[in-house]
């Protein structure tokens, strides 16, 4: 009986840890709870000598993602858009691989770092988590900005309306994983 209970707990822990945080905590992070850049809560767990980050699940069975994204320490030599998490470049017409499944909004593409920086600051002040994807273009680059994950379909549509209300009329949703 005791072995079965342990197996159930370990199976649940392994399942909760599969999603994982958007980004893993820094190596020197020692706290028992971590909030990732999407505002989702994770608990530290040790399993077979390995640290796992188990997603906190609410009473509704959904991940608890209600915290404001933490303010990261940023290298003062980086511009706001340079300091964002970067997505790997993809071929034209291929969606990027986001850090976790979900709904993301593509906000815009910019060749001017200054303009991208202004947009990043506005989006972060509005409460959005922002990601970037860079594409080399000769001696410059094209920087594409995304926000998300935006939650379930209704939350994603509300986020898209908010973005459009902020002036990003061409913003559109991209979905990664099960919809």
From TrEMBL:
Indicate the secretion signal residues. Answer: 1-19
The record's section on PROSITE patterns has: SPOR
Protein name per the record: SPOR domain-containing protein
Q: Which UniProt keywords apply?
A: Signal
Residue ranges constituting the SPOR domain according to the UniProt record = 97-176
Write down the InterPro entries for this protein, in alphabetical order: SPOR-like_dom (IPR007730), SPOR-like_sf (IPR036680)
Which Pfam families would you find in this protein's record? Answer: SPOR
Source organism: Meridianimarinicoccus marinus
């Amino acid at each position: 009986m005791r072995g079965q209970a342990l197996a159930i707990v370990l199976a649940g822990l392994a399942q909760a840890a599969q999603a994982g945080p958007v980004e893993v905590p820094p190596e020197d992070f020692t706290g028992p709870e971590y909030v990732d850049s999407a505002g989702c809560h994770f608990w530290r767990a040790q399993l077979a000598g390995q640290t796992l980050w188990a997603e906190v699940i609410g009473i509704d069975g959904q991940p608890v993602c209600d915290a404001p994204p933490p303010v990261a320490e940023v290298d003062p030599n980086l511009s706001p858009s340079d300091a964002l998490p970067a997505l790997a470049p993809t071929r034209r017409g291929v969606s990027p691989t986001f850090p976790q499944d979900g709904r993301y909004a593509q906000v815009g593409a910019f060749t001017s770092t200054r303009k991208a920086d202004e947009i990043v600051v506005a989006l972060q002040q509005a409460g959005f988590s922002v990601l970037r994807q860079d594409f080399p273009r000769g001696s410059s680059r094209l920087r594409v900005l995304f926000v998300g994950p935006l939650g379930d379909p209704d939350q994603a549509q509300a986020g898209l309306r908010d973005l459009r209300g902020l002036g990003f009329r061409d913003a559109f949703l991209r979905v990664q994983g099960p919809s």
